[in-house]
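re: ur question from earlier - yeah i can do the single chain one, its not a big deal. heres the input i used so u can compare w yours
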Amino acid sequence: MTTTTLPVDPVLCMALFVSDTPRSSDPDDATIRETVGRTLDQLGPDECYARAAEVFGDRPETALDRIQWAREMCTRAMAPTLTGVAA
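and the output i got, formated as tokens:
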């Protein structure tokens, strides 16, 4: 049986990216979902994107690693999966 992971909405990744959660903390799935929800409630999607753009403009060398981390964490914690679907 094959399991396919569906893509995560990019705004969820941006919310984790701009949150104050450090990469080194290795948050569990529940913490990631809580952090993303809280950040979106506080800032909204547009402000998350604006802050991410600012980080990429000011510190592109660190932004790339952080967004990759945020995507991996959000995929693990939030991506829906379909079982039995051919990849």
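DSSP finds three helices and two strands in the chain. not sure if urs matches, ping me
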